[in-house]
Amino acid sequence: MPERSLEFGKFGARGIKGGEAIARQLDRLAGGITSPVTTRRGLLARLNYLTRSPRARRAARAAGLTVTDRTLKAWQDGTRSPSPRNLRRVEDAYRQVRRRNVARHLLARLNRGGRGTRVEIHPLDQSQVVRPHQRVLEYRTMNVRRWENLVGAWADGDTAALDEHWVGEYLSDLGSQWGSYEYVTNIGFAA
Question: Beta-strand (E) ranges in 60-174?
Answer without folding.
Answer: 117-123, 140-144
